[in-house]
Amino acid sequence: MLAASLPRPSSAPTLSLSPRARKQIGLFFLAYLVYSAARWVMTGDLATARDHAEWIVGVEEDLGVAVEASLQTALTGTGVLWLLNHLYLAAQLLVLPGALIYLYRRSRPLYARLRNTILATWLVSVPVYALFPVAPPRLADIGLVDTITSQTGFSMDSKLTTSFYNELAAVPSLHVGFAVAVGIALAAAVRHPLAKALWLLWGPAIGLAVVATGNHFVFDIAAGLLASAVGYVVGTLAARAARSASSAPRRRAMARQTATESTAPVSVRTALVPTKNSAS
Q1: Which terminus has fewer CB within 10 Å in the chain: N or C?
Q2: For residue 231, which of 121, 116, 96, 129 has the smallest C-alpha distance?
Q3: Cβ atoms within 10 A of the Cβ of 59, count?
Q4: Virtual CA dihedral for 127, 130, 133, 136, nearest 10 degrees?
């Protein structure tokens, strides 16, 4: 009776995070809050953003890469556009954090490189958003529609949604820049050749998604790739400097020890060296 009345231990799994893991989560949460606040505060006006979008259209037409309208028209009504709509939403909300968690458990060096790239890319992108606001194609009054709002039920232009992001921060496209970085990192982490190939296609797939859904120009994609490349370099250099600074006290201590030993009297140094007889 007594044994039957005792509560049974719960078999449900519990989530246990190490102090280091909690520190990483806090770091990202704080960095994202600062990045989002800065991007939101630096929102430009729609008229200026549309002027910049018109300039981008002119550049793309000169280069022969103004494919946004034709691509959206070709995919309208197809299952491909439905898939691209959902890939666009999943890229930042699910795949990016999921990749960081996976790499943290699988490969700390790859995780650190991706983390540093993301943080540094956020840092270098914020001034661009402030100085060069750009309306996405769906807001640029050039005939493209917002397929995500019209086909997924997720409203990109509602008051609630736009309170969390700056609609006029289209350049650079970090959707694509981060997707390429995530794809490269995950391709390096997995072993199966097919999995590697699929992850390397993740960046191009998101590039197709951001254009087809009316959220970015081709110009924005190029800027996003450049921003992520700069972020990778800045993040790598910052990590190297941090490691050098943390190891400096140890190097100084070793240098002092070496200097002390080199200036010790010869008799003392000889006494410290074991002789052949004493060693036996």
Answers
A1: N
A2: 121
A3: 13
A4: 70
Q: Which residues of 133-149 are buried (b: 16+ CB within 10 A; e: fewer)?
A: bbbbbbbbebebebbbb
241's tokens = 């400097």
Strand partners, 169: 134
10-53 confidence digits (pLDDT tens)? 454 455 678 877 777 777 777 777 776 776 677 778 999 999 99
Up-side HSE of residue 165: CA atoms within 13 Å toward CB?
A: 13
The enclosing H or E element of 21 equals helix 19-41
Residue 85 in domain: yes
**How many folded domains does the chain comprise?**
1
Beta strands in 42-118 (DSSP E): none
What are the tens digits of pLDDT across the range 45-86? 899 999 999 999 999 999 999 999 999 999 999 999 999 999
Domain with 189, as residue range(s), is 49-155+163-244
- What is the CATH classification number for the domain harbouring 150? 1.20.144
199 domain residue, yes or no: yes
Residue 273 lies in a domain: no
The amino acid occupying position 207 is G
Residues in the chain: 280
d(C-alpha 129, C-alpha 136), whole Å: 13
Cβ(239)–Cβ(112) under 8 Å?
yes
Q: How far apart are CA 225 and CA 219, in angstroms?
A: 10
Look up tokens 């992850």; give the residue: 199
